[in-house]
Please model this.
Amino acid sequence: EAGVVQSPRYKIIEKKQPVAFWCNPISGHNTLYWYRQNLGQGPELLIRYENEEAVDDSQLPKDRFSAERLKGVDSTLKIQPAELGDSAVYLCASSLEGQFNEQFFGPGTRLTVL
Amino acid sequence: GNSVTQMEGPVTLSEEAFLTINCTYTATGYPSLFWYVQYPGEGLQLLLKATKADDKGSNKGFEATYRKETTSFHLEKGSVQVSDSAVYFCALSDRSGGYNKLIFGAGTRLAVHP
Model:
């Protein structure tokens, strides 16, 4: 069974440029999460989807971050414009409905903003 | 708010040594507690969990006991192997704000040498 797929694995951009990350969750997992992991820290939740509905986006910086999960399967996280402080690893995870305790994580996208 | 504190790494051990990684938490109510592991180049994986006080979670030779009186969930293994080299994250379930989510510690890197 394929795990959570993320792309790209690495991205280097200059500040003020836009960037997008893509995630394909495990088949059948209707709950999808985006996390940000700063260097030397644990993951912090940005947004959580139940199917195509964003049910918890309280930690998402809405002035520059946006996310979508149009068909309730794969998802895109966008930053526009990127700032130096956005350099981090962006993790996607998925779980079965009601099973938030057991989340399956992708390998992440490492973003470097210069 | 709820939080998790882990011992700082890196922890460096020889093969077959005893491992302890300390984790303490601050939480209202009675959260579930987790250990996730991240092997090099891979996503986080659930290692073990405990859902109530005095529960012991175990997997792959690792154990952790939910200690309510000391608000701790220390990870232990009797004899580590080189393949256990990874970053270990302690986490708790958080329901503040109306949605279940995971709160992670900063992670502890373990390096095991032959």
